[in-house]
Amino acid sequence: MTGKELVLSALEHKPVPRTPYSIGLTEEARASMVAYYQDESFGSEPIGDMVMSPVIKVEFGVRDAAGIYTDEFGVKWDRTRDPDIGIPRPCLTPDTLDNFAWPNPRSADRFSVLEANLARYPDKFQIMGLDLSLYERAWSLVGLESLLIDMVANQTFVEALLDRILEFNLGVVDAGLSRFPDVDAVYFGDDFGTQRGVVMGEQRWCELLKPRLAKQYQRVKEHGKKVFIHSCGAVADLFTHLVEIGVDCFNPFQPEVMDIYSLKNEYQGRLAFWGGISTQRLLPFGTMDEVREELFKLQEMATAGGYIAAPAHAIPGDAKPENVALMLEMLAKGSS
User: Fold this and answer.
1) Taking the chain, what is the end-to-end CA distance rounded to the nearest angstrom?
2) Which whole-number Å values give the CA distances from 196 to 118, 237, 249, in the listed order?
3) Residue 290 and residue 319: Cα distance in Å, rounded?
4) By the 8 A CB rule, do 102 and 161 touch?
5) Across the chain, where does the E strand assignment appear?
6) Is the pLDDT of residue 165 over 60?
7) Does the pTM exceed 0.85?
8) What DSSP designation does 21 have?
9) Beta strand 68-70 with 76-78: parallel, antiparallel or unpaired?
10) What is the pLDDT of residue 247?
């Protein structure tokens, strides 16, 4: 089976002959593995069965001489200490919302990476990625603390802001999927959780975010594609809601904050998972025997479908190269 066929089978909760997988790296981790393998090209090609093509301009690792990257919304990201994402400097307030200059969802170069990847990797599962898609885009524009306060004190503004972001996202989805029908799924990045729970609470999530997320996901379904979402944190309380509004696959499935094996069993046939390999404990601090044992368990879990193996985030710079190498070897061989 091709990588595309493996992933599609997993998403349909059908048995798979080997575990589908997809691996992401931070800038620091890639440099570490380049040194480990003595191979400058390591990480320059997609690792695994899926290809993620970003269509929102938040290029990772890009910065000017002062360490600042300005995205297409006008948010300045300070990447002096974190070269992958950085810390945003808000650029929008309730007073400036009406006159804010939104990017063009159909800009000429928005889909250049997607177009190239579709041509180059026809046998891999192709994902169109909208990073920082709704909640995260909102707080990057106005500031996290300000947004959370306004969710209570100024809901009218928050709803207007979310509606404007939704309008932009729907434009991107329509433009991308109309132009590139070979895309298999759309990925929406939105960290709803801390490691203790849903950051704004389940009730407020349902009031402010759920109806707008449902519109995003429904638009993808209207194009006949799968819906992937990303949310770090302890957000298992949202899984029933996510299934209800059309999510097919949840990432990154953090084992530090949820029992991935019981949740996989509970949602078998309803929600697939992508992730599950610990980046906080196993890869940085585990022994090779512990890595081997965990990978065997995950690959066994994957046989019935509904699971795509991956670290529970892009591999961090403190991951042991030998642990990463063992993980990659086992996934490539399909050991079970």
Assistant:
1) 17
2) 38, 11, 22
3) 14
4) no
5) 22-23, 47-48, 50-54, 68-70, 76-78, 87-89, 125-130, 185-189, 193-194, 197-198, 226-230, 249-251, 272-277, 307-311
6) yes
7) yes
8) B
9) antiparallel
10) 98
| Side chain identity, residue 272 | A
| C-alpha span between 333 and 300 (Å, rounded) | 14
**What is the C-alpha separation between 267 and 249, in angstroms, rounded?**
11
Q: Is 100 exposed, middle or buried (0-12, 13-18, 19+ CB in 10 A)?
A: middle
In this predicted model, what pLDDT tens digit does every residue of 238-281 receive, in sequence order?
999 999 999 999 999 999 999 999 999 999 999 999 999 999 99
The residue length of the chain stands at 336
pLDDT of residue 59: 80
Selection from 206, 88, 111, 222 nearest residue 151 by Cα: 206
Q: Are strands 307-311 and 272-277 parallel, antiparallel or unpaired?
A: parallel
> 166: Cβ–Cβ under 8 A, 6 or more apart, which residues?
134, 212, 215, 216
Which residue carries 């992508």 as its tokens? 274
SS (H, E, C) the chain: CCHHHHHHHHHCCCCCCCCCEEECECHHHHHHHHHHHCCCCCCCCCEECEEEEECCCCCCCCCCCCCEEECCCCCEEECCCCCCCCEEECCCCCCCHHHCCCCCCCCCCCCHHHHHHHHHCCCCEEEEEECCCCHHHHHHHHCHHHHHHHHHHCHHHHHHHHHHHHHHHHHHHHHHHHHCCCCCEEEEECCCEECCEECCCHHHHHHHHHHHHHHHHHHHHHCCCEEEEECCCCCHHHHHHHHHCCCCEEECCCCCCCCHHHHHHHCCCCCEEEEEECCCCHHHHCCHHHHHHHHHHHHHHHCCCCEEEEECCCECCCCCHHHHHHHHHHHHHCCC
* Residue 112, token pair as written in the block: 């250049």
Architecture of domain 3-56+90-333: Alpha-Beta Barrel (3.20)
Phi, psi of 33 (to 5 degrees): -75, -30
